[in-house]
Design goal:
mainly alpha; 434 Repressor (Amino-terminal Domain); elongated; TPR-like_helical_dom_sf; Lambda_DNA-bd_dom_sf; DNA binding; HTH cro/C1-type domain-containing protein
Length: 426
């Protein structure tokens, strides 16, 4: 059976666990003599004094959520011990997350939730709910990420005096999540509410919110409004230099997209080429820009620019989508060996990741190119890749077997009809 400790005994345990001496937590009418009397059970610990001591301790601990001391901790030993156990669990899970090896079972989550609810540990709720949100984002379950972000945000409001930046970060993540899931109206409402609370925001945070507002308008194809907001955000050179290039690059990239959508393709390309010169060529943004520019130059048949771009791409950073675009580009440049190298890479990546949508897209484009250029002999290679894919993806067996049949029979009409039918099915 659990033996309850006195408030004085718990104060001593919590103080020592926090690495603090009696003299460290004096101040605000709290003397070392009073602390000594309480810890030795010679005077009671009332709630007002407990609150002052907790405040002194939290200030010394930099208001750390994992080391947070609550007034109620001094009165319930089981509560404090539960917090210590949860801290150990959190540290392990956080380390696993940082190492990229985090895996959480439903039973683990339920056990943590049970302990959090038992004593309403709001400080620990923020930590765990944010960690759970991180985990679900890492496995692309955005609905569950949102569920835990909302809960972390709700509990963080009680600590907003000490954790304004964390509260803003959670708000920003909620906005991003809503935008990614196309909840545009909800995201705009949250953005406006947050902007209206401007006394709690610094200039960088406010301007970031306007970027999200621009993104939301781009999502609903209101490109003129998006351009207007981004022009305002980027007009102050001194501001965006202090904010950092990453933010500026995000704004500039979105601006180029909006210009392209409004028909100003030349202006969009100019922005992208300029942006490409100032970012890390190995970054995810650079790879996205290469994909986009290759597609634009290919469509406009600008052979010189296309050849230069294709030669700049570093092979070790090529993903399946960029490999697909490089295949199409090298086919246009009539460099079939390089084209087939990237075709193989695109198919391999799609196959390894069981990405049916990408696999189908590459196969379809490839078949069309080989048929149009009278390279039917190369369809044998494609047929072998399709057969490999079917083994891992039996749900698509019938569809791909039809493709194989039409290839074998050289039935181009049926093949074309099948592609047209499947365009909105896969």
């Amino acid at each position: 059976m659990y033996k309850e400790k006195t408030p004085g005994e718990l104060l001593k345990i919590i103080r020592k666990t926090s690495g603090l001496h009696q003299e460290d937590i004096t101040g605000n009418k709290i003397t070392r003599n009073l602390i000594s009397l309480i810890e030795n059970n010679k005077t009671p610990l009332n709630e007002d004094v407990a609150s002052l001591i907790a405040n002194n301790m939290n200030e010394l601990l930099n208001y750390s959520l994992i080391r947070w001391v609550d007034t109620y901790d001094f009165y319930t030993g089981e509560r404090f011990e539960t917090k210590q156990e949860l801290n150990a669990v959190y540290r392990k899970l956080e380390k696993d997350y940082q190492d990229g090896s985090l895996s959480i079972s439903e039973d683990q989550i339920n056990q943590v939730e049970k302990n959090l609810r038992k004593f309403n540990l709001q400080d620990k709720k923020i930590l765990f709910y944010e960690l759970f949100a991180n985990y679900y984002r890492s496995i692309h379950q955005l609905n569950l990420e949102y569920f835990y972000l909302i809960r972390a945000h709700e509990n963080c409001t009680y600590f907003s005096t000490y954790h304004k930046d964390k509260l803003y970060d959670l708000t920003e993540r909620l906005i991003t999540n809503l935008l990614e899931r196309d909840y545009i109206e909800k995201s705009l409402k949250l953005i406006d509410i947050t902007i209206q609370a401007s006394e709690d925001l610094d200039e960088n945070q406010k301007t970031s919110l306007y970027f999200y507002k621009a993104w939301a308008h781009a999502k609903v194809e209101d490109y003129s409004m998006c351009i207007s907001i981004l022009d305002w955000v980027l007009k102050d050179e001194s501001y965006y230099k202090s904010e950092g290039l990453e933010f500026t690059n995000d704004c500039t990239y979105l601006l180029s997209y909006c210009y392209e959508q409004t028909g100003a393709v030349k202006k969009s390309k100019t922005i992208l080429y300029t942006l490409l010169q100032r970012i890390d060529p190995n970054s995810s943004m650079a790879l996205d820009i290469y994909k986009h520019l290759l597609k634009l130059e290919r469509k406009s048949q600008n052979i010189e620019n296309l050849a230069k771009l294709a030669s700049e791409v570093r092979d070790q950073y090529v993903d399946k989508k960029l490999a697909h675009e490089l295949f199409l580009s090298y086919q246009l440049l009539k460099e079939s060996d390089k084209g087939e190298y990237y075709l193989n890479k695109a198919l391999e990546r799609a196959y390894q990741e069981n990405d049916n949508e990408m696999f189908y897209k590459v196969i379809k484009d490839c078949i069309k190119i080989y048929l149009e250029s009278d390279q039917k002999d190369k369809l044998v290679f494609l047929a072998s890749k399709i057969q490999e894919f079917i083994k891992n993806n039996p749900n698509y067996k019938l569809f791909y077997e039809l493709i194989l049949l039409y290839i074998k029979k050289n039935d181009l009409y049926s093949l074309s009809e099948l592609f047209e039918f499947s365009e909105n099915q896969l």
